[in-house]
Design goal:
The complex is a heterotrimer.
Chain A (H helix, E strand, L loop, with lengths): L1 E4 L3 H6 L1 H13 L3 E3 L9 H6 L2 H16 L5 E4 L2 H8 L8 H13 E3 H8 L8 E9 L2 H6 L4 H8 L2 E6 L16 H4 L1 H17 L4 E4 L2 H13 L5 E4 H6 L3
Helix pairs in contact in A: 4-6, 7-9, 11-12
Chain B lengths: L1 H10 L2 H22 L5 H17 L1 H14 L3 E5 L2 H14 L5 E3 L3 H5 L2 H6 L6 E2 L2 H8 L16 H12 L7 H18 L2 E4 L3 E3 L4 E6 L3 H7 L3 E7 L3 E2 L5 H13 L6 E6 L12 E7 L10 H4 L9 H5 L1 H6 L10 H12 L16 H5 L6 H15 L6 H14 L2 H13 L7 H4 L12 H12 L5
Parallel strand pairs in B: 1-10, 2-3, 2-4, 4-7, 5-8, 7-10
Antiparallel strand pairs in B: 5-6, 6-9
Helix pairs in contact in B: 2-12, 3-12, 9-10, 16-18
Chain C lengths: L1 H18 L23 H18 L3 E5 L1 H15 L4 E4 L3 H10 L4 E2 L9 H6 L2 E5 L2 E3 L4 E5 L14 E7 L3 E2 L2 H7 L6 E5 L4 E2 L7 E2 L6 E7 L3
Parallel strand pairs in C: 1-12, 2-3, 2-4, 4-7, 5-8, 7-12
Antiparallel strand pairs in C: 5-6, 6-9, 10-11
Chain lengths: 242, 461, 224
Amino acid sequence: MRVSLFVTCLADQLWPSAAVGAVHVLRRVGCAVEFDERQTCCGQPAFNTGYRPAARVLARRAIEIFESSAADAIVSPSGSCTAMVHHYDQLFDDDAWQARARGVAERTHELSSFLVNRLGVEDVGASFSGRLTWHDACHGLRDLGIKHEPRRLLRHVKGAELIELPPPGAETCCGFGGTFSVKCPEISVAMLDEKVDAIERAGVDAVVSGDVSCLMQIAGRLSRRGSTVRAIHLADVLASTR
Amino acid sequence: MTFERDARTALADGQLRGALRQATTLFGERRRAALATAPDWEGARDRARAIKDETLEHLDRYLEQFTANAERAGARVHWARDAAEACDIIGGIAERRGARSVVKSKSMVSEEIHLNAALARRGIEPVETDLGEYIVQLAGETPSHIVVPAIHKTKAQIAALFADKLGIAPSDDVATLTAAARDALRRRFAEADLGISGVNFAVAETGTILILENEGNARLTTSLPRTHVALMGIEKVIPRFPDLDVFLQLLPRSGTGQVLTAYQSLITGTKHRPEDEGPEELHIVVLDNGRSRMLASRVTRQALACIRCGACLNACPVYRQIGGHAYGSVYPGPIGAVLSPQLFGLARSAALPYASSLCGACRDVCPVKIDIPALLLHLRAQVVERGAGTHRVLERLAFRTYAAVMTRPRLFGWVVGFARRLRIMPPLSAWTKWRDLRPLAPRSFREQWRAGLRDEGDPDA
Amino acid sequence: MRSGDARREILHAIRTNLRSSPPVQSSPSPEGRGGQGVRTPEGRGGQAVRITQFTEQLTAVGARCTTVRGEADAAAALARILTEAGARRVVGSDAPLVQRLLQSVGNGLVLATDRLERLSRDELFACDAGVTTAQWGIAETGTLVLESARERSRLLSLVPPIHVALLSTRCICDSLGDALARVSTSSHAITFITGPSRTSDIELTLVVGVHGPQTVHVLLMEES
């Protein structure tokens, strides 16, 4: 199985361990991984803020880059970026580009969904000691339907104990929402504090999520509040063999 | 900007936030429990949405059919292009019928058109009879939730309000407070000669209007006075009488977690004989006020499928923090964020489409499957295109730069490499005031890939 | 005429805006039957299930239920209910059954005039209890259905704080959808009643008995 990595700009620059970890895990389960260095950003920030022409330009670019790959699948350590690719067809009026967009979307998978649903793998041979809780990133959860996949993967991690987040729960938005986090910062942080309160009540060593954007939001507040709870990416855990 | 200021005020109000947290949590639990009692919830949502889509696709035909059948049954149907015209029509009816004592049951459209103020200018003061609306009216405020208008008020605040306006002894017993309102309003019902109500559904096939409620005030408003005025938006019509079934399965469960509300009144025209019970005259006012414009695109049109259940408000993590008043509109929450700009203009409500993290919880709970996030994104694109809202100069520049850099991977690499070496991060005080900012990693993924990660996996390396 | 102008303009605006959007792939028009309630089998076994479900749901929504056989039994139950409630001023609807029962209940109760239309509004508001029949009952939800063409029950089931409703077990149907199929809009007012009136507008605390009746008592008349 040959996989082309869709790294995402945030993981590339701000949380590379998630991407490096994804590569290690994919290789461990028998995939060959390629990486097209031409990729930059999927265009989500522009699309979400209303700058559709800019988003379209980046979408075309991403489609062309990933079309040119002969890999069996395109895999990303981000639910929101994967969801963006799945929405690419909405950016185009003409049938040709819509078809091309759908073609790429069909082959693009978020990491946990790829492992569990495409490869049928739940145990990736990981070891990670600690009490963990999972945060469902919104786009992955609601656009891609990712819910049980990360939980199954985490339950097979040796030494890890997975606890469901107390109310308002794992499914409640962390408040990032892209530019929302800086356009409406007080509301964003109010939402975030409810999430962080729940994380602290859970009595865990770390909160795990599949999206770097959520992790930045949560980690940023955990450290500002002086919490000892760490925020880590799913790929960080799955790649770990300690 | 008003939204930012009002949101900040709400966030600083600890009592409001506690009330919102409690209410939205409770409604969420009740809704979930109620879904379990529905025979085929997802099937019902699909059927209801299909009916709404069909109706909107032929809205002119169904409105004409409704009008013909309602009038055949004895109602008088009036058409109003905008708020002013609707207020004028209703004021005219009130004057012609010599209305001196007016009672009103819950109607969001009446708030949308500022009916009470318009009637007041004619010397007519309708009293709100829905308990939450009555409280809000006495307090001189506006409702903050579609289903529970006074959700932002504690019983202590209400007790003080009633002591002041109704002259009762202050009490923190909810039943006592409710009884005080009941007694005050009962006197008004007994003397009312005009009742104004909303409409939940208008059936084209029969000319029937349906009104749902729990308290009984809508029944009193629509059966006792000699004149009944029912106010509805053009989107309230549904094709056939049996269609009511699926909407009655969805609305009470979605709104309050009830299988059915205490009362549904199905009113078809007027009484057949003078000695029968009920009003002599029924006037149905059909209002456009910007709704017809929304039919122009399928994305915007779906907002007209809304059945005003309030489920999206209860599910929204943003509404949960700031409540309804911050939205500055009679329609708050997720549906308000997409309706208000379209009804009242983007210029006035440019902030609302951005008052969301796009989490999608609203779309999950909407009984008619309105894709609110898609609508929000559509409106954001319109805001940018039309240059609505304030201070977009820097933002436009930022996105132009972003696009230029992201289409040039070598430039991208150079910019981030430069920023990394100099340890520069964008001065985002809107982030750093509350959250630590993670710096650029010492080595990006692509640097690590090039430096050896690529070859690690290559058996021939 | 101004309203004619408004009508023309609104319809025109609707048509113009609909035309300007791309055509939808038309899905077949959904047929009217929106509901898919569980269907109880017909026959006596089915009716017994319906009756049981109806009485359970009535209780769940806060109404009371007494099963009676025949008019004498009903009259006795009615007298008991009214006495226990301390109801002095009682008015019945124009349904012959109601008139008969109230006549035989008589003692000690101050009955208002038997011609409903002569009742002034003040007298109506001073009533303690209203007695009506119900045309249908809905088993799935414990709902009573009143049709204005069949009986003058609209105000008596609403204004007095106690509502007593006589319902034949033969008239209980399965579901909301069934009830909608049975009623006729030749009644200008059809009312569905599910339990007593209620509100949670103050701090989400439930209060039973606001503007409508606080007590709903169903006398379920068994018919073989």
